[in-house]
């Protein structure tokens, strides 16, 4: 067994029930941005460590706008996590992405307005590149794992993140479709952008639970609809995550697409190092010290 955490998972607490996850321990983490949504569960699958975090807290107590995304991502970084798999519920804005399907999006549109989107500011300016926000290597590995488990899975599509917590009106849903969006959710932003700032590979296993509210032949989305589909998909998500452990540690992992997620800040820091305050260096030195000397 290695001490390194192979990858982290951010999603619902139902994922903790994986029978393959052994030697579980609970870790309380403090970050410069406060406490994460929940304690982090570290366990082992096939001799490799994984870290689980309940995005909305144990018992689902935080709405999408209340989640401390910065603390969640920073806590994973503090634990040495360099790859993250998000498991989340989404609505489909396409007829061919049906409830029960799983989608691995490759693009995102941030339509939120209340959330802290960056670790930086307050005297340290960073402009990180996110033209392709999801890690191509991790996307490919998760896709392969889901396909091997027999999931109905789709590669690609743009996920729009809305503020929530309410669901979309029909007018909004049809507008998003007109914009060319494929999926609608409430949590991917700013999670994906913070992961890039933390130089963590990030992918989303997006579980389609409904057709939002655009589909005239289907009932508009409800909480019951979302929960029932997630319950059905939990088992395949668990099996796919177990298979992902084997996929990322097999010789074939070298054949996955290459990424540069772990050096995303290499040319992104614009502030003159001489003017960065000691307080800023102390707070987020974990992210930038390797570039500041």
Give an overview of the whole structure.
Helix content is 28%, strand content 22%. The chain has 293 residues and is an alpha/beta fold. It has a single domain, classed as Nucleoside phosphorylase domain (Rossmann fold, 3-Layer(aba) Sandwich), CATH 3.40.50.1580. Strands 1, 2, 3, 4, 5, 6, 7, 8, 9, 10 and 11 form an eleven-stranded mixed beta sheet that branches. Strand 3 (40-45) and strand 4 form a beta hairpin. The longest helix is centred in the last third of the chain and has 26 residues, at 223-248. The relative contact order is 0.19. The model has no long low-confidence stretch (mean pLDDT 92).
At a glance:
The protein is an alpha/beta fold. It has helices at about 70-80, 135-150, 170-180, 190-195, 225-250, 280-290; strands at about 5-10, 20-25, 40-45, 50-55, 85-90, 100-105, 105-110, 155, 160, 185, 200-210. The chain has one domain: 3-Layer(aba) Sandwich (Rossmann fold), CATH 3.40.50.
Task: Give a quick account of the main beta sheet: strands, pairing sense, barrel closure.
Answer: 11 strands, mixed
Q: Ranges with pLDDT <50 over ≥5 residues? A: none
N-end to C-end Cα span: 33 Å
Radius of gyration: 19 Å
The number of domains = 1
Structure summary, number of beta strands: 11
Our estimate of the beta-strand percent is 15-25%
Coarse shape: globular
Helical content class: 25-40%
What is the CATH C level class, in words?
A: Alpha Beta
**How many individual helices?**
6
Order of helices and strands: EEEEHEEEHEEHEHEHH
Query: Helix/strand-derived class?
Result: alpha/beta
- Average pLDDT across residues? 92
């Amino acid at each position: 067994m290695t001490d390194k955490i192979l990858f982290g998972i951010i999603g619902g607490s139902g994922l903790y029930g994986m029978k393959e996850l052994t030697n579980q321990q609970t870790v309380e983490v403090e970050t410069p941005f406060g406490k994460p949504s929940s304690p982090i569960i570290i366990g082992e699958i096939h001799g490799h460590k994984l870290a689980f975090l309940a995005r909305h807290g144990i018992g689902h107590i935080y709405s999408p706008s209340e989640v401390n995304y910065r603390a969640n991502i920073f806590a994973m970084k503090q634990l040495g996590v360099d790859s993250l798999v998000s498991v989340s519920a989404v609505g489909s804005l396409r007829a061919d992405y049906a409830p029960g399907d799983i989608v691995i999006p490759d693009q995102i549109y941030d339509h939120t307005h209340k959330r802290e989107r960056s670790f930086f500011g307050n005297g340290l300016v960073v402009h990180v590149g996110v033209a392709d926000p999801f890690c191509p290597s991790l996307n490919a590995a998760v896709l392969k794992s889901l396909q091997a488990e027999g999931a109905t899975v789709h590669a690609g599509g743009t996920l729009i993140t809305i503020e929530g917590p309410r669901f979309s009106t029909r007018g909004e849903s049809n507008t998003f479709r007109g914009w060319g969006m494929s999926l609608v959710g409430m949590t991917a932003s700013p999670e994906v952008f913070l992961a890039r700032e933390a130089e963590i590979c990030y992918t989303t296993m997006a579980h389609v639970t409904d057709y939002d509210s655009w589909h005239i032949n289907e009932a508009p989305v409800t909480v019951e609809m979302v929960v029932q589909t997630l319950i059905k998909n939990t088992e395949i998500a668990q099996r796919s995550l177990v298979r992902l452990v084997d996929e990322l540690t097999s010789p074939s992992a070298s054949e996955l697409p290459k990424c540069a997620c772990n050096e995303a800040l290499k040319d992104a820091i614009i502030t003159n190092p001489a003017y960065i305050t000691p307080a800023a260096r102390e707070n987020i030195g974990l992210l930038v010290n390797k570039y500041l000397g």
